[in-house]
């Protein structure tokens, strides 16, 4: 059974940094892409960043390019989201997702809350 467990959220001032972690278990993820999504209050969930597990190829939404970095650690089966230069508009619940490349994301974590104060 696939499990995704996020950690690392919290309260930070604008301009600060946080690193989110997503510990993945239950299978090998070589054929998967892993992603971070976020959902702010009263907003729809939006894509933040993704990484192909095997190749390390990454993609980002425009609003986080140059500030956020997604990466993975094969040995720890963990995906990270390094968030720098945080802004109040980055405040949201961040969730980790996994899906076979070319298909929908079908595994989701519970989410971790990030609050950026101005």
Layout of strands and helices, then pairs:
Elements: E1 3-7, E2 10-13, E3 18-25, E4 32-39, E5 46-52, E6 58-60, E7 68-73, E8 78-83, E9 92-100, E10 107-108, E11 112-117
Parallel strand pairs: 2-11
Antiparallel strand pairs: 1-3, 3-8, 4-5, 4-9, 5-6, 7-8, 9-10, 9-11
List keywords for this structure.
118 residues, mainly beta, seven-stranded mixed β-sheet, four-stranded antiparallel β-sheet, globular
How far apart lie the N and C ends?
A: 40 Å
Average pLDDT for all residues: 96
Segments where pLDDT lies below 50 for 5+ residues?
none
Order of secondary-structure elements: EEEEEEEEEEE
Number of helices: 0
Helix content: under 10%
**Radius of gyration over alpha carbons?**
13 Å
Q: How many strand units? A: 11
| Major sheet | 7 strands, mixed
